[in-house]
Predict the 3D structure of the following.
Amino acid sequence: MSATAPARRPHSSAGLAGPSRPERFLAQPPPRAPNAKVRAPKRPSTAPGALIETPHTIEEHRLPSPTQIREAAWLQVTDQNGTRIPFGDLFMGQKTVVVFIRHFWCPLCQDYMFSLTRLVEPAMLKKAGVKLVVISNGSHGMIRAYRKIFRTSFALYTDPTLKVYNTLGMTLRTLDAGPESQRGAYVRHGLVGGITMVVVNAVKVGMPVWKEGGDIEQLGGEFVMGPGLQCTFAHRMRTTRAHAPIQRVLGAAGID
């Protein structure tokens, strides 16, 4: 009987070694109990006495554990072409700023994206050896038009299952904008002005309004991840206007 040929690995890993090699997290999934079920994204329960996440129970800056990072690396995100790739592929080989926004129709996150594209220059990132990616949770069919709004070169992906969001601890669901004293400096529009901006932008770039824009109650956050299975900065939103200042996130990535 001939020997069985070794299984092919899905990705090459030239220049990478040890536990940070991409095939390490792809070749061996996180261990689970024999009868364990894959958990669906968390949702608040309406049952009497159920524990519901609040801004006070969310650990805003807690770094995800090694197990959480490994599990998240296995989960898939989708690019603008509809291709699904492991989340870990975004940061395994390079330090990466990962910005999780809310839904594609959120005017507050559009304000944040305008701030991000105005303050972050690709040349700045290249010089520092850092990459930046943005993740939303709507349909991948929205990505091309959304990027046109900001004329950004930064890659954008979606996590419509919310599994990456939840695994990294972004489990708070709310429409609460929070007090004015805690409003992010990037916010330029109020309710009416924000809605108007979103509509105008959608018309300008031909946003496909029939596509799923995402979960309107899901909050986002900012992380500095990689290279390898590590996270050196974490921030989770507690209100809809609470993205971390992008300058602070860049500073955590070693960019002055």
About this structure: Confidence is low (pLDDT under 50) at residues 1-20, 32-51.
